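re: ur msg from earlier - yeah i can do the zinc ion complex, just paste it... oh wait u already did. ok heres what im feeding in:
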Amino acid sequence: MVFPAHTLFYNMTLKKSIITDKKYGRIEITRNPRARRIIMRVKEGCICITLPVIASEKEVQKILDKYGDRLLIQKNRQPQRKIDFEYSIDADNFSLRLFPGNNNRFQIKREDEQRFTLICPADCDFTDAKTNEFLRKVIKSVIRKRAKEVLPARLTYFAKKHGFSFMDVKVRDSHTRWGSCSNKGNISLSMYLMMLSNELIDYVLLHELCHTKEMNHSDSFWKLLDSVTASRAKALRAELKRHHTTF
Ligand SMILES: [Zn+2]
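and the outut:
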């Protein structure tokens, strides 16, 4: 592995660094003083390593020597969907397609509340990795925008309907969890919920709202969740497990 000169693991102000390795490809290294252990995962075709302390290059290398092959298998299991004119997203609250335009520009066109078109130059080279990365960024920003329009409002609606109260709601670019609720009642929701059906979005929102009353996954939690999902809590959980947040 070759570390670029600007990768300074000893610089306290630097939290994230990205390196490119011949074997492993893109590796994102985050140093988080609050992390208690080393966390490794694969996100969008990128190996992400979070380190609890100031780590040296040697330590990162050691981690890769030990766990690299396993991470590589995981990485290859979730291939990124290539973005080209065939690409589209069709969900209940959000849809997006790509369309060739007449000029040399990329442009987002909002067709109505939930339908977006990403107009690309007709001769756009989708095989170019940089172009794909750019398009992914653009699509992400549209998903985030739509998620911020839909999710907090829907959460508030369900809270009122079923008598829950929460402190705050945040929409995040989270690939690891669909949602979470802190013990202070702050709810986080993944913007990628927009890729799911209404039924599953509502399940996640209700799941987090139930955590404002039951902080664990005890029997009383599932009873409460059943009472607001027409006794479908476990069935919906099973259905949700078939989906993942990769985009
Ligand atoms: Zn939960």
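cool cool. Confidence is low (pLDDT under 50) at residues 1-14. ping me if u need the other ligands too
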